[in-house]
Amino acid sequence: SKIEARKWRKAARRRRASFDTLYAAHAPRPRRHLLGMLGPAAPVDDLVQDAFVIAIDRFDGFRDEATPSTWLHGIARNLARNWRNTQRRRRQILASAAPEERTPTGAPPPDPHARAADRGALALLFQQLEQVGPMEREAFVLHWLSELSMREIARLQGVATTTVSARIGRAAAW
Question: I need a surface site. Which of 16, 91, 133, 174 has the fewest CB within 10 A?
Fold first, then answer.
């Protein structure tokens, strides 16, 4: 909406109060999105802050094709993808290192998903989400945890709303 875009423009002009208000209003949804995509061991709060910094720094390039909050989710999505790729590269490097090079004790680093396995229903949700494809997982998380509409998710993922609905259905079936 135009009102939301105006608030973002004020924050982009480095008005501290505007940024704080914007952050308080919009941070919970991308935080839930990132938590759902990456799990509880990820630096979710840092990634949310990074997403806001990037959004504010690049707001002049915002083209009003979506709402600013949906655009913020796109930035968070890219940060999540980059974080996962970095973690995968680190695991590959650690796996290829000699055992004595892995850690001072020689044991590989603990698996963040294993540490979260005892956290009840949330752990079960993350385990189940690991079983679905990345697009299904993202659609499910954006809809149920970040509370985005089907239309917003479709715009973010670049697909039809029926595709989003099917992805959410497949993820929920697990």
Answer: 16
